[in-house]
Amino acid sequence: MTGRVFTKLLLSFVLVLLVGTVILDLSLRPLLEHSLREQPHAARDLMLASGLALAAATLLAALFARRVAKRFERIVLFANRIAAGDLSARLEETRLDEISDVARALDATASRLEQSFHALEASRRELAALLDSMQEAVVAVNAQGQVIWSNAVMQRISPSAVIEGRRLVELLRDPDVLACVEGALKERVNFNGKALTVFPGRIFEVNAAPTPGGGAVAVLHDVTSVERAEKTRRDFIANVSHELRTPLTSISGYVETLLEGNEQNSPQAREFLAIILKNATRMNRLTEDLLALASVESGDYKLKLQPMRASALVEDAIDSLTGMVLDSDVTLEAGETADTLVLADADALNQVFGNLIENAMKYGKSGKRVLAGAQLLEGQNMVEFFVRDFGPGIASEHLDRIFERFYRVDKARSRESGGTGLGLAIVKHIVIAHGGSIRAESELGSGVTFLFTLPCAPDKKAMVAPVSVTALDTAPQILSK
Question: Does the residue 402 lie in any domain?
Answer without folding.
Answer: yes
